[in-house]
Specification:
This protein is an alpha/beta fold. It is built from five helices and five strands; from the N terminus they run E-H-E-H-E-H-E-H-E-H. Helix 2 packs parallel to helix 3.
Length: 136
Amino acid sequence: MAEQCAAPHEIVIVDDDELSREYLVRLFRKAKSEVRWFSDGDEALAYLRCNRPRALFVDQRMPKLDGIELLAMLNDERGLPPEGSYLCSATALAPEIRARCTALGVTMLQKSALRQSPELRALVQGSGTTEPAAKA
């Protein structure tokens, strides 16, 4: 656990899809952000229990611990960092998924990590929103 807490990163990406994950990693590293990535929710949970990134990107659909479960566990354990911006990505953002993400403090929803929304561009540039997500 000490290694997990040793060096907090500004951006944390949790996605089992290599293409999406690598896209986001490159996008933020190009903007000179410190990035840490995980391919599953269990690995990320250990790190996030003692680190508060500026932004946490989670894929909604992952094996083992999915993104919503990860956010719910973090919220239950200590509350999500209020200054963070969150992306709950999935191939389909059904109304119940949107509602659950918003209730968990997600401030940015988008259908695909590969889509550069205005909110994602603002976050990459360091001026991302921290207001709750009103729409997807």
